[in-house]
Amino acid sequence: MIPQSTGHVTQKTLLDTLLSEVEGAAKRGTAIVVFDLDDTLFSTADRHLRILAEFAAIIETQDARSAGLLRGIAREKLRYSIADTAKDYGLEEKLAKDLRDFWFARFFKNPYLLEDSIIPGGPDYAAEVIVRGGRSYYMTGRDEGMREGTEASLLRHGFPDPDGKGATLVLKPRFDTPDFAFKNEALHKIAEMGTVVGSFENEPTHVNLFVERFPKGRHFLLETKHSGKPVQPHASVHRIKDFRR
Fold this sequence. Notes:
Blueprint: E1 5-6, E2 9-10, H1 11-26, E3 31-35, E4 42-43, H2 45-59, H3 64-71, H4 82-88, H5 93-107, H6 110-113, E5 117-118, H7 122-131, E6 135-143, H8 147-156, E7 167-172, H9 179-193, E8 195-201, H10 204-213, E9 218-222, E10 238-240
Parallel strand pairs: 3-6, 3-8, 6-7, 8-9, 9-10
Antiparallel strand pairs: 1-2, 4-5
């Protein structure tokens, strides 16, 4: 595989450099790398597609045309918001609202989490952090009610077991807590556990939070999907496509 380039430095070089920094920090104490999950370690595309297929099956008899449109949506055409995806494909307003409600009732449920696929290289990279003496923290906007499906999905795809030793899973206590507020508070606690050497996020707002809190760390933005908020990542943030080296 040809190494991907991030500016003048290849993705491989950036990822390898972080691992070297983990190794050095681990000799002085506890070295931590924080990974977001949705659209960072996992692609949520197949979760969206399963829900779209189920909704299409329900409306088939009343609206075969719209059902066909939904079934025809390709992975690469999915937007971050299911409402934006529906708009792109011309679903009429009431049907789009029904789809949004149907999606919301399923997207955050444990069985659907098992549909997610990995961002290439993610399991190996999270494991390599531990091999180098560090700890991998999965810190996600998913809530405690999603723990069962999240743990099952991590293990199913070969990620380090979040047993609190080499890897730890940090979830929101409540579903309705905004992700930014949760992560802002959680970072205080993680900072007490050791040195945060690096982080990986898909949301510019969140990666900027890591930069502000841990300015000596190496922070990465996954160029997958994000909420679309008009926020520019800090100039020091490294942009990568995936975790392949």
